[in-house]
Amino acid sequence: MEKNYKLDPMSVITLSFRQTLKRVLFWARLAVWRIVFSIPLVTWPAAKAAFFQAVAEGLRDPFDQDVNPREAFVRGFFDQLGRGTAVAAINLLSLAVIVFGMVFWAAQEPVWLNLLAGLAIPFLILWWMSQPYLYPVLVEHPDLPVPQVIREVIRLAIAHPGYSFVTTFSLTWLFLLSLPLIGPLSLMTIPFLALIGTQSYWITAGITVPDLVNPIRYAEQREMKKRSETDGT
Fold first, then answer.
1. pTM, whole model, 2 decimals?
2. Is residue 4 included in any domain, yes or no?
3. Cα–Cα distance between 152 and 137 in angstroms, integer?
4. How far apart (Å, rounded) are the C-alpha atoms in residues 49 and 76?
């Protein structure tokens, strides 16, 4: 049985929608940088990772005091250039292997061999349910090797099957519904989906979601952390 969560998936979606509207300019600026850095197609994985890193930093700065969208994104792009590309490559390769296996066995004779294609379906579902966690885990653990990032993503999807399924199902439909909104409105839909994925990961991993704690206490804790980091250097 899955544990009780601070927020169910639908509440995370509602929270993320409110956050999108509340700080629309901040998120829109990040979305613009992601689009610009994704124009060379080879850099889109790093741009996506940088976007998620900047989104996480923005969520942890709810009063817009410390995080500059451009600086956060550019720093994240170079931080995640290699790891973001590697994670994307492994992710796409995994999907290709699963789909190839399904197609291969479905095309075999005799017919009973077609049943072997069904063995790939659980792996396809697991891959699908892992997608919301992929980049949030990557940016949350900058020192974690890429294979361990993949393992942690899979572990989360298996450990929280109900939460992961509902979150992924919701994100899939929201993504499909947002496709006709290509244009200025995409500057809201792109961050909206990233906010859902990031905070869903935080909920399942037991990481503090800033908007769910006392804002004054959170600000004090953040200031104490900054001071300790400054004293440490």
1. 0.89
2. no
3. 8
4. 7
